[in-house]
Amino acid sequence: MAEKLEVERKYELPDDFTMPSMIGIADVVRVTEPDDQHLDATYYDTAGLRLTSGRMTLRRRSGGHDAGWHLKRPSGGERSELQVPAGDDEQAPPPRITTQVRAVTRGEPLHPVALIRTHRVERGLQDAAGATVALVADDTVETESLIGARVAQRWRELEVELVDGSPDDLTLIDEALRAAGARPSASPSKLSRALGPDHPAAAAKAAGDGGTTGPAKPGDGKRDAGRRALVAYVTEQRDAVVAHDPQARAGDVEAVHDMRVATRRLRSTLRTFAPLLSAYEGDLDRLHDEIKWLTGLLGEVRDGDVMALRLADLLAAEPPELVVGPVAARVSELLAARTQAARERLIEGLDSDRYIALLNDIDALVAAAAAGGPAGKGRMRRLARRAVRRADRRLAAATARPEPVTAGTPAGGTAGTDVALHEARKAYKRARYAAELAAPVAGTPAAKLADRLKDLQDVLGAHQDAIVTAELLREQGMRAFAEGENAFTYGLLHARQAEHGRVALAGLPRARRRATRQKVRRWLW
Predict the structure, then answer these.
(1) Which Gene3D superfamilies match (predicted)?
(2) Other residues' Cβ atoms within 10 Å of the Cβ of residue 133
(3) Which strand (E) or helix (H) includes residue 260?
(4) For residue 28, which of 7, 112, 125, 444 is within the disulfide window of CB 3.0 to 4.6 Å?
């Protein structure tokens, strides 16, 4: 199974189009002999064309040099292409494909929606070193839609795919083709043109919404500014969960992190802005708990990855003579086993019906965010202010505890203080997300407050990280001692973490002052 970034351009051609000589364009010194190919492709989608609506295409191609299953997905400004070989008698997409799109299809079956037959004449544009700058494919295309109007069409188009060349090379090639009469294709893909009026974008345009899909949009007046911000924020988090699903399944640590952050933001929105979500027909508390379930699965994996890196750095920073016994191996074994088990639970969760039901419920939340009544700047400000005040109260309670923070405490404070500080951290994270959501309405002041709250949250987070790391070291040290190993290094690192926790808290007063200054909070009132 291979995935690559596909950088290509498509062109419509006039009847009298003649391919220009590309010699001298983008360092091209040679054009290869034409490679004549006959490509037959069956395109698959759900009954409601969920893949096509998400700008994805899935096909089973025969003929050419890359026969098999091809899944194309948006990737930044370009598209990525995943290729999986197909068995001789395989007519249904294999699990290696279906799991990659499950968050989009929501588990609905995939079936043929179009047949596309292409007579391709392909030429390679090569430079002096023999490298292929780009491939130019002159395609004569015949299509048959298998749904709705069942349109049959025939046309000619040109496709240029960058291989070893640069974006600048592609620009020069583009200029040469346009000068010869080629024009950028009005259709994003062969499939979109093949489906004709049944393509989601075409159907939406015919319905009069300008070609967009998704929930109904609130009005453009000032009274709706807050709701527009809410809709955009919730939609962004929903889309992030879906977009990062395939990479999270594959073990990409950043995808797991980004997906987890999106779920946290959704949970925070449910709590802070619940009064604006009254149009949601389900139980918001239950939805919060279900998102929390997914956050937990992602968090177990993410925390294991982060802890492994953290402990590796801590051990690397110690002089070799202070690392006594197989500490690195023991810690690595423990965390690898825990993280692997967490990954298995995550995959099991992502493959479950519960996950699909959750995604559908989040879709309903997006629709509810758009369907509510007017919500202007004032209401958004009041709700955000409530979240900020709640966080302030929690931090005040944590720092007003009678137990002193002394050099003898485990990692910066007593157990009760540490728990209270952690709760304050979570509250400030929620307040920060509220400020982020309100920023499109409140402007720069809200964005500035979000930055200051993040700094405060980071201080409390560094303290919490030290506590969690110290506890794991204590646990491992006790195990090492019980098994007859030298526990010196575990104790040393535990002491280091206690100091890290105290150092982190030393930065709390300044971060707190900066986050509570009038100039970054004035917009809340």
Answers:
(1) CHAD domain, Hypothetical Protein Pfu-838710-001
(2) 25
(3) helix 253-272
(4) 125
